[in-house]
Each structure stands twice: as structure tokens, then as C-alpha cells.
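Title: Prediction job returns without error message
Component: structure pipeline
Severity: low
Priority: P3
Assignee: unassigned

Description:
Job completed but the reporter wants confirmation the result is attached to the right record. Sequence as submitted:
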Amino acid sequence: MLKKYFISMISFSIMVIFNSCRSELKQKPNIILIMADDLGFSDLGSYGSEINTPNLDQLAKNGLRFTQFYNNAKCVPSRISLLTGLYPDDEAQNAKNIAQILKSAGYNTLMTGKNGSGIIGLPTEEGFDRFFGLNSGASNYFNPGLRRPNEKEPGRKYYSEQRPWAEDGTIMQPFTPNDKNFYATDAFSDYAVRYLDEYGNRDSPFFLYVSFSAPHFPLQAWPEDIAKYKGKYMIGWDAIRKQRYERLINLGIIDENWKLPKRDINVKKWDEITNKADYDLSMAVYAAMIDRMDQGIGKIMAKVNELGIENNTLVLFLSDNGSCAEDYKAFKTTAPEIPPGPMESYRTLGVEWANASNTPFRKYKWWCHEGGISTPLIAYWPNVIKNVGGINHQVGHIMDIMATCLDIADIASIKNDEISPIQTMKGKSLVPIFEGQTRDEHKFLFWSFSDSYAMRKGNWKLVLSHSNPRAGIDYFNEESDLLKTDNENIEWELYNLKSDRTELYNLAEKHPEIIADMLKERKNK
């Protein structure tokens, strides 16, 4: 009898411990991380746009908008920092990613959309439980495996370039879905909803990474979405930039003292354009792609609400870089006569509308001026965010995302051999900002991509642009010639972002001592 009693008590104790563990796991917040591709700073309604984004705007209205949040100017380096909490240098190549670490803390790890990170091969082999999407860079939005007229192989801007897709452990190359209504943005959203149905109410929390390829080129969208915007842009990019600039000021996102730069030197006055309808259509398709992404986010949030997990779920939305001014000529050899919109076409946004998308900033994707590295960031977390509907001006960086996720998952440190012997996160958690506090800021931030470099310390920003060709020199390398203050061949630009975030007034000649101090700190970091 006594033996049965002890067995019963042991069983009861095990049950209590098991249920306690389950309860502890369930109390950890769920995380939904949503990333757009090539989205400009002012491309959302809640950031001054005329584009219809009601679902993201609703998250902003009931969450928090950041005005000084940075990415890394290009898709791959941005995704590296997002996934590792590090700068995109050699250290990041050997680091554990966010899915691997959250999985070790009991999270179900789910991903849909574009991989293209440069450090993850097949996501389900590197920390994610589930994956559906494009396991590479940009691809057709409609049936990705079909060929355009005169195209030797299905793909993108180059002949013989096929883009691999994958579902869990199965690679599909080429990917030719049977669904005649297949559209990549819809598929990514639908799989995210499917994952929420399967994992949303389990005893363990989930991390869902939705990596949209929209609005990255090629410009392809559903006709009904294009119809919403066709004709809206006949007023031209000059008028659109002015309208967005004024809305950004009225919203409190930018300072009215920051002047709107003149249109890019490579952009003509709208009044000088003869084929206005062609340009109107290009921007209409681009807007339609953002609209469709927002519709998908609406589906995701509807499912979150249906599952009753809204209050315990952090939702983050951002872009991997600024709007893209690239003007690939592939359409001239694959489908020169087909306008943007359908699968058979291959068009890019171009510098004209990218200049408007990045209002009020200068430059674009690839560049380390504000137009290349500034992203909207919307945070939505009903149980935690204090300043609901607020605007936050504290400076943040994309590598802060991982630090934030690990913070709310109660993973105190990753400085141990069980995670990675070399990994020490450079990011800082955003949770104090969510809670209405002023957090310790980064002492400085720096960027390096191609031949564009930048560093920020406080309100000072140092920039080296494409106009000074330095390709191949690595600013992440502490021995770089770029850090030599006596190098007369380097023409730095220096801006005070507090008074001039649109980078119009170069103070390099006036304050050489500030440049010297910043470069010294960078070298001795």
C-alpha cells in the first residue's frame, strides 16, 4: 500500500513538473517577424504614402512606429544581421541563427517567403521546423517555372538562371505549381496562416518569419490590384514626393526643419516626360504589390485574432533596404514589348519612382545614405507596448531584432559553447523601448556595402559614397585604408542628423576633428 502511495506521489510530482514546464513555455511570447523586400521608407500609409496599407496601418495605430531604424542597404547583409544579431562580417558566417537558438528554448520555428540570406542553405536543415518559399533571390511572382518569350530558361534577369524553391526538405527547381492562380505573395501569406493553424495554439510558443519578396522586381501584380492605382500617379514623382514629405511632417515622423532634397540628378522633371502613362503604370504595379502584401498581412493577423493569441504575440514589420533604383535591361532581350504587370514582363521600378519611395531621403538600395539604410519599423504587442500609436525616435539597427527576440524568450546569454563559441551579439534589445523607457543607445553604428560606407555616432554620420570608387576595400576591416585620417584620396561626407537627416549640408570641411575622432573610435572599437 505504501509502495503504491509513493509511486502515486512520484507520478503526481512528475505531472506537476511537466505541466509547469508546459505552462512556462506557453507563457513565453509568440513572435511574428515580417520583412518586405526593397520597400521604401515612405511606402506605407502610416509612413506618409498614398498606397493603401490598412492592415499595417492598424498595427501602427495600435503599436509603435520607429523613425530611426536601420538596415544594411542590401538584402543579404540585412538578412545576415537579422538572423544573427551581428554585423554581416566573417563572424556572422559561423554564428548560430535566430531559429536555432529559439528552437533550443522550446520554440516552434516556422518560415515562409524568400530565404536569400547568404548564411542559411535549406532553412529546415538550419533551425527551422517548417519552410515554404523561394530558397534564393528574386523570382517571377506568377508561375516561377514558366519561361518568358525568348527566354532560354525560367528565372530572372540572366539567361540560364533558375531560382530554387523549397517546401520543408524538398527542393523544387524549377518550381511550376499546378495552381493557375499562384502568386508568390499570396502563397507566402497562405502558408503563414496554415502554420498558425497548426502551431498557433500548441503548448509551446512559435517564431514565425514571413519574408516577403514584394515589392522587389520584377514588377508583377494582379490586374484588380493594379486597377486601384492606375492613373493615380499621373501627377508625377515631383508631386508624390512633396505630398509624402508633408504627410511625414504632419505624422511627426520627420522634422519640418529637414529640407526635402531636390529630385535625383538622374531624374527628369515630370513636366519633361512624354510617356507619362508608362511611368504611371510602373508605379501602379509597384503600389499593387505592396497592397497585396498588406492584404496577406491582414490574413495573418485575422488568424492570430481568431486563435486568441494576439495579446501574447509580438509582431514586427520592416524592410531589408531602401527602394531600388536598379534598371536592369533584361526585359529588352526577354520581353521588350510587354509592359509591367503580367508574368511575361520583366520590369524594374527605376530611379524615378525609387526617389519618391524613399522620401524624404537621398539615394537607394546599395547606398549607405539614409535612403538606402532607413526602414520603417512597426512593433505591435498589446500586452507590453506602453505608448500605443506612438512615434519613437530612438536609434535602432536590424541586428537588434535578434537581441529583442532572445530577450522576450528569456534567453539571457548566447556567450557559451552550447550556442556558439564565437558569437557575441552586437544588437541591443528593443524591449525597454516597448516598455516606454529610454534604452542605452549603440555607441556607434557602421555600414559597408560594395563601395559605399557609413558610420553613425550620436547625431553625427560619416559617409563615403559611390562617387568615390573604393570597391573592394572592406570598412569592417580595422586595418582598412578607409580608417587612415591622413588619406587625401578619401572625400568623406559628414552630416548632423539632428538638424539635417536628409543629408544636404556636408560639414566635413568644417569639422575635420569629428571625422578623425569617429575613425579613431572605429579602428579601436
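Comment from assignee: result matches the submitted record. The first helix runs from residue 2 to 27.
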